[in-house]
Amino acid sequence: MSNISKWVIVLLLATVPLWVTNQYQLHILIMMGIFTIGAMSLNLLLGYTGQLSLGHVAFFGIGAYTTSLVSLGFDLKLTEDYTFVFAPKPAWFGVICAIVVAGLCGWFVGKLSFRVRGAYFVIVTISFAEVIRLVALNWVDLTEGPMALNNIPSLAFTIPWADSAALSRRIANYYLVLAVAVISSIIIQRLVQSRIGRTMVALRENEALAKSVGVDVTRSLVLAAVVSAAIAGAAGALYAHYVRIVDPDVFLFIYTVTMVIMVIAGGKGTLAGPLVGGVIFGILPELMRGHMLPEVQWIAYGAIMILIVFFLPEGIVPAVQRWWAGFQRSRQSKMNPHSRANKASPREAAQ
Amino acid sequence: MSRLTKMALMASVLACSVAGAAADTIKIGINQPLTGSVAASGNFITDGAKLAAEAINEKGGVLGKQLELVIEDNKSNPSEAAAAAEKLISRDEVSAMMGAWGSSFTLAVMPKLQEYGIPMVVETASSSKVTSAGNPWVFRIAPTSEMEAKAFGQLVPEFAMKKVDFLVVNNDWGLGAAGEFGKMLKEQGVEVGMTETMDPAAQDVSAQLAKIKASDADTLFVTTGYEQLSLVFKQLKALDVNRRVITTGGSQFPDRLAEQLGSAADNSYHILFFAPWFPDAAANPEVAHGYIDQWNQKGYDKSGLSDGFRGYDAITAIAAAVEAAGSADPEAIRDALWKVDVKGVNGNIKFQKVGVEGSESGQSSPNVYVVEIKDGKLALP
Amino acid sequence: MDQLLQHLLNALILGSTYALLGIGLTFIFGIMRVVNFAHGEFYTFGAYMVYLFSVTLGVNFLLAIVIAIVLGILLGAVVEWLLLSKHRGADIDTTMLIMIGAWIIMQNAEQLLWSGVAKSIPMPFPEDPLTVGSVSVAWARLFVFVMATLLIIGAQMLIQRTRLGKAMRATFQDTATASLMGININMIYLATFALGSGLAAAAGALLGPIFIVIPTMGNLAVIKAFAIVILGGLGNMKGAALGGFVLALVEEFGAGYVSSGYRDAMGFLLIILVLMVKPTGLFARTERIG
């Protein structure tokens, strides 16, 4: 996709609050955007480095908790007579902290878990998320445990044309989510197209070979993990300030699975894949609502996931690209039968 | 509730909403745990709410309109409760809500009430935080842990307790109950030992019980939902911990405990807010009988009676407020809730102003009952 | 001291079911290289089958357990044939994603069929526990322990002493050679997955009546099964059995002496530690089963 068409899409998305004024529809779009950012960050690990990280929701949750704690303030009784008091800070500062803390956690987990591969890596990442969930659940003094952190301040600014405070808050959140999504995709794109990005792909394709030509495997993997975790942390921070409540269930495995489904269905290792997956799986539940019970919806998700692995193992975006490339070629070859030589493979086109 | 009745329910709600579009109904949101760790109680409360709505609709509804209940599952989780409230308010545009079972769930919903200006009748939550937060959209018909402890306090001398331990669920509800009952017992000169907590979804509590077994207390207070409570009783028996057990909270289903656990539940006392086995002991026996008859006519599970009444009373109160308000406008309903004075299954529902001055929350004064399981049967102590 | 003994006993009983769960998972991984995320759902399935037969249909409790295990084996075979048989030799991520899909489908099907309200299953055992000195154990738990131990021994015998077991071990060591020797690899995979699923269903059938039965009960079970398998080393059966007991011990003592809230966290911390120090598992020789 050319740069111009990308910006056209961003501009179109920016006009959405002008013609979508139904609060609930905006709500759906915001939630969809937040999870799409999460999926984009997961894609960096899953798609580009080929590491199936199934603890990704940990970074999302860490971001959410960090910004909530920073903006709500907390006090911790460290010893009998010393209590550490953290005064509430502005919400935007919380978001920055969330990104930094999530990034640091990404570095830490990366350092630890990239020592193992395959099934072991998957299990370490899941275990990490689960440990964090249990800490959030049980460190009641800090996190309020199952009672949840409530009344998290809103990140919103005032939208002049909105006719109610609630609508203004939603529109503001919509633009925030859009902005973070655009910035994240620029960062991911830059990273992937850089030398380090090419190293990552080399790694995914053949780790032994990459090593033998002198690629510092762990270093590129850890870098990917840090960037990925920081973006997930930003998504989590947006989530916390939007829904204004965070409880330990934000770390549940099912949310990782939701992001994985978005990435896999859209097309892992492509920039557009998680976006397409995010839009489909963010809106699908609302379209299905009223027509089927929530359980049936989930069953449909599971089935879609299996069907995609069976029939579209690369995901929707590469499949469409291939179809489009084929279509273009056949048209070109009709006009000019000698141009076959410069066909691009779908994967290159996707990157 | 069986899956079939649930489907029938959904079909009827769907039918209601289709009919409702034409007949212009008054929408009331129900925010209850229909799945997850406290689902049994949440389903019964929803059933009770439906019975009340049905009874009112049969008599011609309110202000000439039918009541329509819009039901959302909060999955026994605070964030889901907030999300459910968001849906009920911004998508379904309900005029008032009932919810959200637990204190943690209710506290999670409360900012939404303030943000959108929707009143909510709180049917179960017992934490003092609910009514002390300065949220003027909250009207509670359930007793606080403090009220529960105080009411039970009158019976303490009869039990001749020397030392007690607590085993509570690790949230506002459980910790609040442990705090308030502990305070009350200390005032009465009873020694308070350890307070053990359990995760709301935990199934194996034998480690906590092994610790409690080693204590020299004579009484154990337990606060949690029915699901976990039945496990606690089973595991108490398995570890041969023989002491008096007193449960609090009002969602214990003592008849089911007695039936399913046999002797494991013997020598236990249960603090309840309605004792359907003794309807004549209720404050309004005629309302209690009416509710019980209606419940039995539907063929609902009898053990749900002691929980279902909360939904029944909450809808009764909301309907009375809508009637008094003369419109389905949320703010008018809120103002009218202060004037409500109706006979409920538990007792008379009338809200007093409590909490932060200037933005008070409503709190009624419900009755508290204690039921004993003795030789596998229920008795009033 | 009394408390210590009680904790030990609790851990021993819990450990036997953990071992059952872990063996099934490690078995499937060792032979098929499939990380079975749906493992916890077979566990849940076992529990619901006991509920269906013993409570809803009124079948004898012991018979209901046997039926649940048999149905677990059958369901495992169906899932393998339907979802995995077309993906022989696919990379580990592919099959993992398929099994995540299966996990979601199975869990929601259970919720649809039996609602989200917990069910309890009465057990036909004396209510009064067996008390020796200051230590007590419920007859029901004793029954679970005995059954689980028998099943573990049975599975071990099957691997070591039967033709099928021999073929499985051969497949584990070298799939290509085994295939050349005339072993029907497809049948071996089918049998492996069915057997592993049957063991998970057995664990659910035994633990369900002790606890309560709820559609989400498999979520923690599958993660714990992973912990057990990692402790023992992926694909190591004896390791998984030991891992089950180790996890139960760590949990029980963690809950008893550190903090009951962190009970479930102990296992995961243990995994992370083990993987950092000895990634092949605590009890791993080189990878092999049996």
TrEMBL record, chain A:
CDD domains: TM_PBP1_LivM_like. It is a multi-pass membrane protein. The keyword Membrane applies. It is found in: Cell membrane. GO terms for cellular component: plasma membrane. The keyword Kinase does not apply. GO terms for molecular function: branched-chain amino acid transmembrane transporter activity. The chain crosses the membrane at residues 28-46, 53-71, 91-110, 171-192, 221-240, 252-284, 296-313. Keywords: Cell membrane, Membrane, Transmembrane, Transmembrane helix. It comes from the Bacteria. This is Branched-chain amino acid ABC transporter permease. It comes from Borborobacter arsenicus.
From TrEMBL, chain B:
Residues 25-376 form the Leucine-binding protein domain. GO terms for biological process: amino acid transport. CDD domains: PBP1_ABC_ligand_binding-like. The keyword Membrane does not apply. It holds the Pfam family Peripla_BP_6. Keywords: Amino-acid transport, Signal, Transport. The keyword Signal applies. InterPro entries: BCAA_transport, Leu-bd, Leu_Ile_Val-bd, Peripla_BP_I. This is Amino acid ABC transporter substrate-binding protein.
From TrEMBL, chain C:
It is a multi-pass membrane protein. This is Branched-chain amino acid ABC transporter permease. InterPro entries: ABC_transp_permease, BCAA_transport_permease. PANTHER family: ABC TRANSPORTER PERMEASE PROTEIN, BRANCHED-CHAIN AMINO ACID TRANSPORT SYSTEM PERMEASE PROTEIN LIVH. Belongs to the binding-protein-dependent transport system permease family. LivHM subfamily. The keyword NAD does not apply. It is found in: Cell membrane. One of its GO terms (cellular component) is plasma membrane. Its main location: membrane. It comes from the Bacteria. Keywords: Amino-acid transport, Cell membrane, Membrane, Transmembrane, Transmembrane helix, Transport. CDD domains: TM_PBP1_LivH_like (cd06582). One of its GO terms (molecular function) is transmembrane transporter activity. The chain crosses the membrane at residues 12-31, 51-84, 96-118, 138-159, 180-204, 210-232, 239-259, 265-284. It comes from Borborobacter arsenicus. One of its GO terms (biological process) is amino acid transport.
